[in-house]
Amino acid sequence: MIPANAPEAFQDRQTLWNAVDKFNNSSNAQLAREVEIGLPVEFTRQEQIKILQEYVKKSFVDRGMCADICVHDRADGNPHAHVMLTMNPINDGQFGEKSRKIYDLDADGNKIYNPVTKQYKCHKQNLTDWNRPTNAEQWRESWAAICNREFERKGIPERLDHRSYKRQGVEKVPTIHLGQEAHQLEKRGVRTERGNYNREVERFNASYRKTVSEVTEQLREMYLQSQAREQAAREQAAAEQAAKEKAMKEQAQRDEREKAGREQAANNRDPREREGREPDVAPTSQRPTVQGAEETKAPISAEERNGQLDEAGKQLGEVKNTYFRSVQEIETIGARRSELNHETTRIGGNISSLEAYRSTIESNERKLARLQTDRDQLGAFSFKAKAKIDGQIASVQQSQTQAEKSLQDEYSITKDQIPAKLTELQQQARRTEKAINDLPNVEQKQNEADSAEQEYKTKKIGTDVLPEQERQRIEKAESDYLNQNQGGQGEAGQGRTMQSFKTQAKIDKITPEEYQKIKAGLPRSVQARLNARDAQGGKDVPAYAQSGTTQGRTMALTK
User: Fold this and answer.
1) How large a percentage of the chain has pLDDT more than 70?
2) Among candidates 452, 443, 445, which has minimal Cα distance to 323?
3) Rounded CA gap, 83 and 70, in Å?
4) Is 337 exposed, middle or buried, given 0-12, 13-18 or 19+ CB atoms closer than 10 A?
5) pLDDT tier at 457 (50, 70, 90 boundaries)?
6) H/E element, 120
7) Phi and psi dihedrals of 545, rounded to 5?
8) How many CB atoms lie within 10 A of CB 78?
9) Which residue intervals of the chain bear CATH 3.30.930.30?
10) How many CB atoms lie within 10 A of CB 413?
11) SS3 13
């Protein structure tokens, strides 16, 4: 069948497809579209051909396609037609292009160049509407309408519906197409995989309506259990958050009390100390300190001075060791928390899986009991009804056997051992939850690390104002202490990790902003010496202090 504007020669099948092949010479060209149509067995062959020609003309030929139709009927109850359709429109008696290339333009109307592909950007524009995704729906609907019209005309109650069961609102599982080979085998009594699937679907559809209320109730129970678990999890999270906020509030109150105590102690110091005669290394406790030579009340021996310097280095090492230990504890707590959270997830997954197994097994047992009761109530000669129930019982038993086998393979237990296993897992979950709650407070450890870092940098700034020889002695005493008391975290340590390098780099680095902030909190005499050193410049000025006067003077000289 060909449209009115097609050449008469296209009535010949060989001429038509030779012309199609000649015009579409691209290696990946789509030459044709095939539509397979099932013919109603209620119609005679002449009636089948008549409605087929009407349908092809209305749906395809009138829209400009050439159609090559072939009817197959092997007397197997499956008459059908194959319709091959051309893809190219016919213009002036010959095939035309299916689509054309349209270049993408910018706001100024110029073509857009793609430097990656080295081509101008473009897109394809179809010249017909034959490839629209909605066409298949329309073609199926049109065929159903034609067949239903003829059914009604002949008084046949059958009707076709192109929609799926879901769209029709039918609670039914569709079967699959057997195919010629499987159909012939089934006719000879040979069971095939497709046939077995269809029989299983039919059995399911037969029992579905009776079991839908039971399935609905099970789903409702599962939903309620899930909601209860989620509510419990939310309540637990809220309790944990409240405990966390309470701990943070208590820590803040302790910090305030400690700050007030330090301020009170500072006010109670000797007046001479408040006037500015403080040690170079600002102490935070009553430990030995190093004093600048110009502030010493009486001359001291070199041995005593060296002892003060060694003690200052030891103090720096102690503070740094405290910092390293706090950081390590924070990392250990984080790793342990991650491990316990993973264990909690694993246990929760096992509990959910076992509950699902228990629900499935108990549901199958209820189904078997109900089916057996229904069978026992049948009469002695209800052979067909009993055979139907026997099939349902076999299907449920198979499901039950598979569930118990999977349970044994996955957890090495039987169905009777599920409650004990669930109790064991729930106890593990409670122990894991307790272990998480018993972990040390990370915020407190972080506060300890921050406090140690601040104290170390304050002392370090105080020692940096000393002469180079004294600084070197303090640094050596600090390194010796760390090597003896920290297991290799000091400068000469062995086997250090990248994390330890990062930790040491953080506490050793003093930024210009930190320097200015710490200096502002030091005694005025120490501030004066630091300002004098910074203003003087030279190699004795540390890098963190070179962003002030010295750096400004250097920039001015450069200009």
Assistant:
1) 87
2) 452
3) 7
4) middle
5) confident
6) strand 119-120
7) -100, 0
8) 16
9) 8-162
10) 15
11) helix
CA angle 19, 23, 24 (to 5 degrees): 115
CATH annotation of 8-162:
3.30.930.30
Residue 229: both structure tokens together = 């678990």
DSSP lists the bridge partners of residue 119 as: 114
- CA atoms within a 13 Å half-sphere pointing along the CA-CB vector of 398: 7
| DSSP code string of 334-386 | HHHHHHHHHHHHHHHHHHHHHHHHHHHHHHHHHHHHHHHHHHHTS-TT-HHHH
Nearest alpha-carbon partner for 343 in 456, 430, 446: 430
Q: What is the per-residue pLDDT across 383-421, written as a single tens digit (0 to 9) for each?
A: 778 888 888 898 888 888 888 888 888 889 998 999 999
Q: Residue 361 and residue 356: Cα distance in Å, rounded?
A: 9
Tokens standing for 323? 């910092």
**At which residue do the structure tokens 């629209």 appear?**
132
287-336 pLDDT per residue, tens:
344 444 344 445 778 888 888 888 888 898 889 888 888 888 888 988 88
Cα 491 to the chain's mean position, in Å? 42
